[in-house]
Each structure stands twice: as structure tokens, then as C-alpha cells.
Amino acid sequence: MGFGSPEWPFLQRTGCCLDKRHSGTTKRQHSRPVAAGEAQAGLKQEQAYVRDEFGKILERERISSNEHLTRAILRERAATEEERQKAQRFARQLEEKDRELKKHDAYYKEQLARLEERSAQFYKVTTEQYQKAADEVSARFKSAQWVLSVFCSSNI
């Protein structure tokens, strides 16, 4: 990319210089200060062009970075939302499990109370039957003793 290339139209010329006052002059007719001024003007224009190009590149990079950052933020928000929903789902499942466990706990307590009541009734009935049987055995034994005592006392 030289000064005579199409990218630098301000430096393309057919004559000696861009100054219209010198349209018919040759290079030898110009003095050094005029050539130095042209070079200085060309340098300033080139610097302005480079500055503009760098500005455009930086702007594209800034836009690209912003887009990348925006996508990353959106991905992070989506992941955060997904985690929040997952946590809510787990919380609901935990609450449901807790309700189920409380329900089972109440059922088992009820069953335990029934078993304890049945056991107490069984113990009472068994104790009563044992006592009745013991009383009957004792009564028979006493009656047998009486019979023996009567029988033995009459035989003596």
C-alpha cells in the first residue's frame, strides 16, 4: 500500500503535485519547502486514515466483546434460572416426602397404639384366665385335701 495506490487517492496525481497553482510545473521547478509541506500533509492524512481504521477495528472488537459478554451473561442467567427451578423442584419433592413420612409416622403410631391396646387386652384376658385356672386348681386341691382329710380321719 504505497502513496500512489488507490487506497490513497489524495496522493494520486498526474502532474507534479496536487496544488492547482503548480499544474504546469515540473519537479525541478518546485522548491524543497513545497515538497516537504506535501509530505507533511500526506503524513497527516495517512495518520488520520490509520487512526480511523484503528478506531473502526477497536469499535468492531468492542461490539464483538459486548456480544460475547451478553451471550455469556444470558447463558449464566439461564443456568441460574435452571438451578433455581431445580432447587424449587427438589424443595417440593422434599416437602412431599416429608408429608409422606409424617403420614406414615401417624399411621405407624396408630398401629402401635392398636397393638398396645390389643396386647393390654390380651394380657388382661390371659391374666384373668390364669387367675381363674389357678383358683380352680386351688379349689380342687383344697377339695381334694378335704376329701383326703375326711377319708384319712375316718380311717384312723
TrEMBL record:
The keyword Lipoprotein applies. One of its GO terms (cellular component) is MICOS complex. Keywords: Disulfide bond, Lipoprotein, Membrane, Mitochondrion, Mitochondrion inner membrane, Myristate. It is a lipid-anchor. Pfam families: MIC19_MIC25. Residues 21-42 are annotated as: Disordered. This is MIC19 protein. It comes from the Eukaryota. Signal peptide: none annotated. InterPro entries: MIC19/MIC25 (IPR007964), MICOS_subunit_Mic19 (IPR052632). GO terms for biological process: inner mitochondrial membrane organization. It is found in: Mitochondrion inner membrane.
